[in-house]
Amino acid sequence: MRSRQPKQLLLAFFGEHVVDDAVGPIRASVLIGVLEGAGVAAPATRATLDRLVQTGMLDRSKSGREILFSLTEHGVAVLREATARVRGPRPFEPQGTGWTLVTFTIPEGQRTLRHRLRSTLTWEGFAPLRDGLWLAPGEVDLAGSLEPLCQDLPPKTVVAFHARELAGFPIADSVRAAWDIEAIRREHLAFIEVWGDPGAATQAASALTVRTMLVADWLALLRADPRLPREFMDAQWPAERSTQVYRRMHQRLAAASAEEFAALVSGGTGAVARNVAGAAARSVGDPVRRSRTPH
């Protein structure tokens, strides 16, 4: 597995515990404490929170001397769009048959918007094929996927269409050029190796931190696997095993992590409380720098 980045962990935290529930702003000390349990130093967490504010995913506020973070409308839309696949019954199967093709034009000066669009396409299983043409298996709900970006994308920026393979023009070589199938297999096997031990969840002090790490790894695996048709995989393809491992571990962690989260956001104590207490001392009166760059 790739190393866990602070952004992945924070999005996993907000996606699991905040986006679907009526939860108020989260104290910076809570976020710092949870990520410290995952090996992320407090300055890295603060810097990542700063960037998530800059990109419009989070809002920042203040209560007394404590810094608070909450999801913006854009952040809610992005995480809810991802939730369908994160919690879906068949996360590695294509959405229908055929192929979805996309081409887009964004001026060089709008690099942030271009990055956001490419990131969204990658999450939906697209890969660049050639000369600005992106390809994804199945019939992707592109309108839904791009909804969080619709206010920022100029009209006619994106052109998309659904296609099927024609007899005599096999697509297999193009698929293998666009995606490294063996690298995708390795991502699955790495996930299984890390999370396949049912006892792993009990080896850490904080179920909340472990669940956040699990979901961050799951998000990374979903992004790495474009949901190619089965004809491109062999009989030993590990996607089903990955799904079983994730669901088993998620269920094992659910109750304890939810209880811990509730205690932390209400100001109580939990398994992360020792980290949170130390993080609070460092974060109080030390606000994350306010962004000067508009989203």
H and E order: HEHHEEHEHEEHEHHHHH
**Major beta sheet, specifics?**
4 strands, antiparallel
Shape: globular
Q: Output mean pLDDT.
A: 86
User: Which value, in Å, is the CA radius of gyration?
Assistant: 20 Å
The proportion of strand residues reads 5-15%
Q: List the total number of helices.
A: 11
- Biggest sheet, spatial arrangement of strands: 5-6-4-7
Specify the structural class. Answer: alpha+beta
Number of strands: 7
Question: Whole-Å distance between the termini?
Answer: 31 Å
The level of helicity is 40-55%
Detail the poorly predicted runs: 268-295
Task: Produce a short descriptive summary.
This protein has about 300 residues and is α+β, with helices and mostly antiparallel strands. Helix content is about 50%, strand content about 10%.
Structure report:
The structure is a single chain. The chain is α+β, with helices and mostly antiparallel strands and 295 residues long. Among the domains are: 98-163, Alpha-Beta Plaits (2-Layer Sandwich); 179-254, no CATH class. The chain has eleven helices and seven strands. The strands form two sheets. A four-stranded antiparallel beta sheet has the order 5-6-4-7, with helices on one face. Strands 1-3-2 form a three-stranded antiparallel beta sheet. A hairpin with a 2-residue loop joins strand 2 (58-63) and strand 3 (66-71). Helix 9 packs antiparallel against helix 10. The longest helix is centred in the C-terminal third of the chain and has 27 residues, at 239-265. The chain is globular and about 65 Å long.
